[in-house]
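Worked example 2:
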Amino acid sequence: MRFLERRAGTGQGKYLIFFAVGAAAGFFALNIGKSILLEGTGLFDEYTLYQMKYMTVDSSALFCYVFRRRILWVLGVALAATTYLGPAACVGSTLWYGMSAGVFLASLTLQYGVKGIILAFLCVFPQYLLYVPAALALFAWCEGLFRGIRIQEGDRNTVLRKAGQLAGVCLVVTAGCLLEGYLNPYLLLGYLKIF
């Protein structure tokens, strides 16, 4: 607990707290409205999972779709970091992803128990091993930019360093998209066949 207290005010610890608050809110919201959200919506019901079990995946189309969504998010947060909305974009993204994770895990756990937890893990594995560090690096990049890095006219090294850091984040996100498009569907479908 001391570790969290030390890191809560700065850097990645702050985002861990916002993520946990969002996850708790998502879990709580799903428990309050589970009759509305889980019944009749098709949210991970048996019919949906049965259809997923026998679907075929076009990995290149999935990669293109996922890549477009993830890179647009990275560029949107990076663009927001150049304004006074930078910290709000980072915190808002963290809360949103935490809430999504809470709803996702709660819905699968309430419906399927331990099998649902394994399914939730396989839905985000292995791409989130890259997405999480990339998001934390992006948030650190945004904080560094927002904290008043003044780029003067002749300071090309700072511009190149910041551009290189953002390009590195984009490269890691692209690698995550490759895993999400080409590897994750087959792990997930393999598990659904024995689900």
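The two ends are 37 Å apart (CA to CA). Confidence is low (pLDDT under 50) at residues 1-9.
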